[in-house]
User: What shape does this take?
Amino acid sequence: MAFYAAASIRQNMSALQAKLKEIMPLAEDLSNIKIGAKNSDAKLAKLANKYPEWQFAISDFK
Assistant: This one.
């Protein structure tokens, strides 16, 4: 039973690490945008196109 729990934990950890690897480039791109600046909406729109799976979250910055 403990073997299955450990395997499940390893699978969940691996999935979380994969998600983290996906989001790190987006976080870096977002760190270069000053929210509220004149051109920030255009930059956010570009990021939404670049990262469609995160479009819902990027749109919250507008």
In short: The mean pLDDT is 91. Residues 2-31 form the longest helix (30 residues). The chain has one domain: 2-61. The chain has three helices and no strands.
